[in-house]
Amino acid sequence: MSPRQERAAIEFGTVNEKNLVQLQRLNTALFPVKYNDKFYQEAIRAPDGFVRLAYFQTILVGAVMVRFESNANGSSRLYIMTLGVLAPYRERGIGAQLLDHVFELLASHPLCSNVSEIALHVHTENTEAIAFYKNRGFEVVELIEKYYKRGVDPPDCYLLSKKVEPRGNGS
Ligand SMILES: CC(C)(COP(=O)(O)OP(=O)(O)OC[C@H]1O[C@@H](n2cnc3c(N)ncnc32)[C@H](O)[C@@H]1OP(=O)(O)O)[C@@H](O)C(=O)NCCC(=O)NCCS
Asked: What CA dihedral angle connects 107, 14, 77 and 132, to 10 degrees?
C-alpha cells in the first residue's frame, strides 16, 4: 500500500464566462463524453453552489456540477452531472471534499429541503469511481445498457444512488 499523502488543501471557486473554457478543458480531460454548449450554459446559470471548481495552489484540478431534479410525485433528487479530479491530484482527498460540498448543499441549500436522493451515472468499467461512491454510502441500483451514444466501450453505465432523509421546509 502506498504511503498516505498529505490531504490537499483546496480552494473552491465559482464558474463564470471568463473561466468557463477552463472547466470545459478539465471535463474533456476527465470524462469520455463531450458536453455540449447547452451543458456549459446550464453551468453558468446554475443556482449558487451547484457548480464548484477546486483549485490546488491556483491550479484548477477538479470540479463538481449538480442539478436539482423534481419528480411528479413531489420527491426530488440531486443529480451529480460531473465530479472529477485530474489524475495526478487524486488520492489526496480532493474528490471527497467535492462530494462533501454536495452533502453541504443538501444540508443547507433552500432548493434541497425535500431532496431524498443523490444519484449519478458511472461507466461500468470505472472501478475507481464506483469504489469511491460505494465507500460513501452509494449503491448500484441499475445497470443501463447502451447509455453512452459513442466513444465509450462498453457503452453501459450503472445508476448509483444514495438515499437521504429530506430535512423538510423548516430548516
Ligand atoms: C472518483 C474520483 C473523483 C475520486 O477523486 P479523488 O480525489 O481521488 O478522491 P479522494 O482522494 O477523496 O478519495 C479516493 C481514495 O483516495 C484515498 N485517499 C484520500 N486521501 C488520501 C491521502 N491523503 N493519501 C492517500 N490516499 C488517500 C482514499 O482512501 C480514497 O479511497 P476510499 O474511497 O477508500 O476512501 C476520481 O477518481 C476521478 O476524478 N475519476 C474520474 C472522473 C469520474 O469518473 N467521476 C465519476 C463520475 S461523475
From this structure: -80
